[in-house]
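Interim report, section 4.2 (structural modelling).
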Amino acid sequence: MLATGPLALLTDLGRPGLAHLGVSRSGAADRGAYALGGRLVGNPPSSPAIEVTFGGLSLRAGTTLMLALTGADCAALVDGRRVAPQAPFYVGPGQTLTLGRPAHGFRSYVSVRGGLIVTPVLSSASTDTLSGIGPAPLAVGDVLPVGPTPDHEFPGVELVGLPASGGRLVLHARLGPRADWLADPAALTTQEWTVTADSNRVGVRLSGVALARSAETLTRELPSEGVVRGGIQVPAGGQPLIFGADHPVTGGYPVVAVLTEASSDALAQARPGDQLRLRLIDR
Amino acid sequence: MPGRVLPCGERALLIELDTLPEVVAVASAVREWPEVIDVIPAAQTVLIVVEHPSGLPALRRAVAALMARDLHSAQSAPESRRITIAVHYDGPDLDEVATLTGLSRAEVIEAHIGTDWTAAFGGFAPGFCYLSGGDPRLEVPRREQPRTSVPAGAVGLAGPFTGVYPRSSPGGWQLIGRTAEVLWDLTRTPPALIAPGDTVRFVAVDRPGQ
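Predicted structure of the assembly:
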């Protein structure tokens, strides 16, 4: 590991099934991009890979490796020569993979054929940035062992499209368990929201015109209850927070709507300052 | 039975209930259902999460059927784990609890060890469980000034609950004792000594390491 960029984490599909003990699932923020990377290099599901936040990663290969870069396109170079994202490529012994800053999007996944060998914590290689469970964030000088090449047949992978880029993000959500705590749930959809700088894997905070509480809930307090990734929570101040992969397992503010799974992945590509819109769908 | 099933995205339902015994009963009933990957009981709700959105319609049907049943008959179905925790009752708030409850120190201890407690729901920190259903005479308010540091293994009371701090942390519960049991161990499967649904019994020992 020659450079990590702002934040590089080991990741997989996380640790489901422990939420009742207070452990969030964690795992890849953009699950679709992570899973695609694993498929492109023929790994079994949940092989450990690297989640790169806003590019800047640099790795030197100790041996010939097959890699794939998915998620935000970071203008990947191997010894200075451009390699295409969304497709497998080789890096030879001593060659260096360098990721630039993505023109669009926020998180990229570097998958290695054979997967990275990581000592799992509670059966997962993922770093939970809220609880600190899992491996430490990657650091310069780290050496990442690569597992043996999978012996199953290499899967056929059709052409993979490039991730959507540039256009304004539109996230789809359904009304959630506490929609009745808002005076007007439609107010979620009638404005542009700005992603704030204190957004991270725990949650994305949005800034806009504050959402008003419904009159009958103004003096009520909600006992803490289980929350899900993609849940749109509205604290008393009226500025929403959307739970990410490392969200706390319970929350004490009303969750008024919940993103679709696809939109929760898409939100992982939003960067601070990005503007987005929410759209409510019925089913 | 009363209760509301609330939508919670493509992979979950939130069930709102009136009483904590109903929460415990629903959480126990749904825990072993196929497709269900997470069950998160809380004070008045149970969140049920399935792995794939395709499992949600079946979950919705199964929950509707469960809610139509008498939950208290459903409660006895799954066998709960029994956990015994040895406690040295020397907590700094034992006298305060005695004053608040009108009991002697010995009676506080007897009340705490005298009944089974049910692990109702987690929260606050990984491995922490709110244990309910104990002797109602032990109901006390939290401390007016929370402590900035409570040691791991401290046994406390707050409201109708008792609980054991899984790690050193700030805390406002009335501390009546401590245990040498390790409540949370990442190298253990499962990592938590106590999980929601478990039945917990405390026993008194002379030294915390016993």
